[in-house]
Amino acid sequence: MKYMIFSKKHLRWILLLLMVMHFPQLSWAQKQVKGTVSMEDGFHIPGVNIIIKNQPTIGTVTDVLGEFSLEASPEDVLVFSFIGYTTQEIKVGNQTQIQVTMLPDIQELKSVVVIGYGEQQEKDITGSIGMVKPETLTKIPTANAAQAMQGRMAGVQVSNSTEPGGGTKVRIRGVGTVSGQSDPLYVIDGVLSTTMISVDPNDIESLTVLKDAASAAIYGNRGANGVVIIQTKSGKKGETKFNFNGEFGVQTPMNLYEMMDINAYKAYANDLFVANGAIRQNRWVRDDDISQSTDWSKEMFNPAAVQRYNFSAAGGGEMGNYRVSLGYTDQQGMMLETGYKRYNVAVKSNMKKGRFKMGETLMFNVSQTKKRPEQSNPGAAIHTAPQIPVRDPLNINSHGYGIPTEEISGSVNTANPVYINEMKLREAQNFGTNLSLWAEVELLPGLSFKSNVNSSFSAFFQETKNPAMDQGTALFATILSRYNENFSWYSGIFWDNYLTYQNTFADKHELTVTAGGVLQNENSAFTFHTADGNRDGLESIVGGVKQTYGGDKFTKRMLSGFGRFIYTYDGKYTLNGSIRADATSQFTKSNRLGFFPSISAGWTISEESFMEQVSGVDLLKVRAGYGEVGRDLALSDRYVAAMYPNINYPWEGGAANPNTGGHVIASLPATDLRWETSEQINLAVDLGLFRNKLRFTTEFFQKTSRDMILNVQQMNDLGTGIDRDKDFMGVGLKNIGSIRNQGVELSTYYDNFEGDFTYSIGGNFTYIVNKATELVKVAGVDTPIMEGNQRLEVNQPMWYFYGYETDGFYNEDQTDDDLEPLAKAGDVRFVDTDNSGDITDADRVNLGNSLPKYFYGMNFSAQYKGFDVSLLLEGKAGYKVFNQNYFELTNTTLKFNRLAVLDGNTWTEENRNAEFPVINASSASQNFSDRHLQNGAYLNIQNIQIGYNLMSLIQSNVINRLRVYVGVNNAYILTAYDGYNPDVWDTGSSSGASIEFRNNATPTPRVYLAGLQMNF
């Protein structure tokens, strides 16, 4: 074998070398690895590319169910990539099943932002627009999704009602007008609304806030206070996906007032009688009447359950998609016998064929609210005398409830509050539906026409039942029962038609032009009917006597045209302009038409060539904008004179016998009334660093409202018997005055979505100052406007508190030569601010802002494998609150029960450093002063939530996501305020200034909750 190249010896060495070379492959055998790739919300992603790192030719893609399978060894690293999402690397190790959640790539994902009558790439935004992520809307256990905006974005101030099913007060960049209509416009799938309480938070796909006029001017007449645009969720292409969200929680009342017990109350009563120079005579708190000590605060406010459930089904195909959802909310009230229930149904679908698309959204809701009775007064409830028992089985006339005894006299005669809430009834039912139908056709490449017909209808019915009652006093005893019913309804039809042209020229010129018109027709009406009946109570109007009734109807019509262009050059320079013309039926023909233009521009400096050498800067953009938006009236036809009926004229019998009935003029016709206009300027800088993980935004804004619609006092000869403090009697509407809000907004966010531990942290801060720049002129001089203890004055903050400064207490009786000759030892001492030598009205001064100067929010979220945690803090500062509850509960001249803090803390000769004045202090001591006000600053740990995705523990081909969580809302409020909540909902003026009213303030709830989220 002379031709043999290798001998047997050589072959043995070659085989040995080959075995050594393949040893790693023999020792690390490959195995089958399977898994599923999904989004954050649990929906599976088809088409995800999966390769073995450093071996790009070996890999696979996920199927339509988001599943994959491939051969890999334990040392291999799998690389998962998908357009718009962050690439992830996972080492195989000993895993045979891998669950992957793809997270959005902040740098590469081109977010689409919903704007008025269209959409826009986030990178091209030139106005001031804020967004709330859909997943954050469901973290707050509330029926009102507007509450979820609190603390989430700069420039948006949110205050929440503590009542079950209560509303939300939203102010975008300050109070926009003096007349109180400062709520933003809500646009829900094209339907215009004044609230979003009827929308289930689980149904919201996107929530966008148009904060400046450059963004909101496209809505013209309704955009003066900002616009909140809501788009509900749609189905996606693929098989039907089911989604369930369930949540249960317990509300507990926070910061309840600690009242005097029976012994402290008796001592206070004795001291008050002695101070009055009267003999008690066992008339108030008897010596033998101290066994009973009722804590009415705890009787009226107790823990209550809250629960929310939502179930949806969604899917779609090549020609369209669909989604159906059902929602249920049940919020029991912490206040006795109150609560709220709501049922939601939402249906949404769309279809397409060729160039034609069409779709609809139907939202339907029914709610029931059990309100506190009209006679139920939370403030009066907690200061009810403690010796009154809650129940007294022997008292037949009061249905077995305890009542004040005859020995309790004077103004202390308050009815049993438990009796009122349990025996009286005030229930309301609300029905609402929003319907949006739209069709769109592509006429030419890039040119489309869209028509929307949007309809909104709501009906409200409320009934109250007040049986006859005997509470031991004439003040709270009624012989007849009373039944009352109120009915109101609203209907609105909005028809939008517009053309949109969108095209890109020469790869650098992007142009979008929109033009169209809107037709609006809104109608509303209300009626009321009251009847008295027998002692046992009426169940309806039928059978009642002494019936009264009334009602009214309002109509509003509007015709509008609008146009807008958005031009971007080379991804660097963007120009956005719009104009809207509105003609409204609210004004006379000569003043009906209003024009509202806007212009804004943006320069993305980071796209310039000279920025290529600047490392770490991924985004640097400046924005500027100017615009005008308008506001008309909520009521109809105010340019027509209003009449007030049932006025008695003293024609024949003189003033002593005014027996001739008739009508008088309530207000003169406002024939010159015109649009109220808000001019707004916005300047902003956006900065993104480190692949846009760290982002900053700074914005400066100025909003000036001019031609404000104010009620102005008219001449004195409008008629007789006119009460000028009631409705519009004796006043007329005029376009007079202007106010200005200006401030700075700061926002910063940092996101890290790489690795097993991902997190996001952000914060926002707003500084805002406001002042009146023009008011009603009398003899050429701006005249301040008073509303209660608040004042509106040129060059001063809006609705500041106006009263006396104090300087402790007098330690001795005052003489005729002193500032206050009638003041006694222990009375409040006021400051002579004008140095006149006397305490007069002229000594009243500005005691502080009633509107916050600062508000802020901070949020943090993190995820590690199956665990996730989120934290939200929010707060306000730079304002005072008139805590009327606290003031009245520490008033030393009243016979009601008092706060426990008053015990031993009133002025006496031995206790001159006391916090409160002498018992039975003079009436002057009660003058509104800085003693009535408290610092409203607070920091609220609004939401803490911890969750875990159980999919890492179970194997299922049906369930895609199974998350459980626990959390707490309003975990702790850090504040020096002594009331229920420094972020007061109840307000003292139409402008929304800060007063916590004694008669309707209720505690803030701390909510402990647990929930389940499941996708399958």
From TrEMBL:
Q: What is its main location?
A: membrane
Asked if the Swiss-Prot or TrEMBL record annotates the protein with the keyword Glycosyltransferase, the reply is: no
- TonB-dependent receptor plug domain location is 123-227
Q: What keywords would UniProt list here?
A: Cell outer membrane, Membrane, Signal, Transmembrane, Transmembrane beta strand, Transport
Pfam families (alphabetical): CarbopepD_reg_2 (PF13715), Plug (PF07715)
Where does the signal peptide begin and end? 1-29
Q: Where in the cell is it found?
A: Cell outer membrane
Q: Pull one GO CC term from this UniProt entry.
A: cell outer membrane
Instruction: Look up and give the membrane topology term.
Output: Multi-pass membrane protein
- Highest taxon of the source? Bacteria
Similarity annotation: Belongs to the TonB-dependent receptor family.
Q: Which NCBIfam families match?
A: OMP_RagA_SusC (TIGR04056), SusC_RagA_signa (TIGR04057)
Q: What is this protein called?
A: SusC/RagA family TonB-linked outer membrane protein
- Origin species, per record, is Persicobacter diffluens
